[in-house]
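Action item from last meeting closed. Structure (310 res):
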């Protein structure tokens, strides 16, 4: 899965949110990563959705250079949430390759988990993120008001304001952004960035496409949410990290900017958000010496230090 020399001039894209550990990729995960490399993807982040998938995300990050993990319990997985889960997440977050807490938040579309149980899991994981100084990856579906209220209180609280996370450039990302311009402006004030993916390419996404030019490009990250939210023209099929290039192209059109500018801006945000170094942008690179060099950098550099630009 090494980089082909003919791809050396491809842009350095980052898929800031995908679920490559899911079993939908078990049959061809290596090929999916190879296609991402060919498309110019140089790093990707795999959030957890529960403890088991947080572990599998870490295992993937250990095995494949350029893959990083986040650990967390998704709101739809929080039905049996207990304080012991926070202890488990704290241990998992100490593993090499873990760069965030997530995917966490609230989901009022699906009715399986009562809102009160989701809220308890959400608040406990936000507290853990502040404790550990790791940014959060936020899921919000049909719950923007409740998510905003929770985050508003969190960033105003003493626990957050006195934490290492408050001193990082960014505290969190609103993944698969579905809010309006007003919420985006408030989120910037919290130290948050926004994640945009396949929906910006949908032919019927008129409201989102009208919103995009209003959003700050220097606060955006590209994402696929693979295997979900597949962009046009592949909608209805399994999504994969290579398709982040389609998201980038759509954003270039919406901003009326060259794609290279969108790549540079969004990769810089992702590198800063996840504290990635230049040596981390090596997806699929099998060179063990480069992997050891990257690990040495991370062992000697605090996650709270400013990263070099991507």
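Sequence:
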């Amino acid at each position: 899965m090494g980089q082909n020399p003919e791809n050396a001039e491809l842009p350095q894209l980052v898929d800031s949110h995908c679920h490559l550990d899911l079993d939908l990729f078990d049959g061809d995960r290596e090929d999916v990563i190879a296609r991402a490399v060919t498309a110019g993807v140089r790093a990707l982040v795999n959030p957890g959705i529960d403890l088991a998938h947080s572990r599998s995300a870490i295992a993937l990050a250990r095995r494949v250079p350029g893959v990083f993990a986040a650990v967390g319990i998704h709101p739809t997985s929080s039905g049996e949430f207990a304080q012991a889960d926070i202890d488990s997440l704290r241990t998992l977050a100490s593993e090499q390759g873990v760069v965030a807490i997530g995917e966490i938040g609230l989901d009022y579309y699906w009715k399986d988990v009562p809102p009160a149980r989701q809220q308890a899991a959400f608040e406990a994981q936000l507290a853990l993120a502040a404790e550990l100084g790791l940014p959060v990856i936020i899921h919000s579906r049909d719950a923007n008001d409740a998510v905003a209220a929770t985050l508003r209180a969190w960033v105003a609280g003493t626990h957050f304001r006195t934490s290492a996370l408050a001193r990082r450039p960014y505290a969190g990302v609103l993944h698969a952004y579905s809010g309006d311009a007003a919420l985006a402006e408030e989120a910037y004030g919290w130290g948050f960035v926004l994640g945009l993916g396949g929906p910006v390419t949908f032919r019927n996404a008129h409201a989102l496409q009208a919103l995009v030019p209003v959003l700050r490009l220097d606060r955006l990250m590209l994402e696929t949410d693979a295997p979900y939210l597949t962009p046009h023209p592949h909608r209805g099929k399994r999504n994969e990290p290579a398709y982040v290039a389609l998201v980038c192209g759509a954003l270039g059109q919406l901003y009326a900017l060259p794609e290279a500018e969108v790549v540079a801006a969004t990769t810089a945000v992702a590198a800063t958000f996840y504290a990635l170094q230049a040596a981390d942008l090596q997806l699929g690179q099998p060179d063990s010496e480069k992997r050891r060099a990257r690990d040495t950098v991370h062992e000697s550099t605090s996650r709270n230090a400013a990263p070099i630009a991507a």
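Note appended to the action item: The first strand starts at residue 13 and ends at 15.
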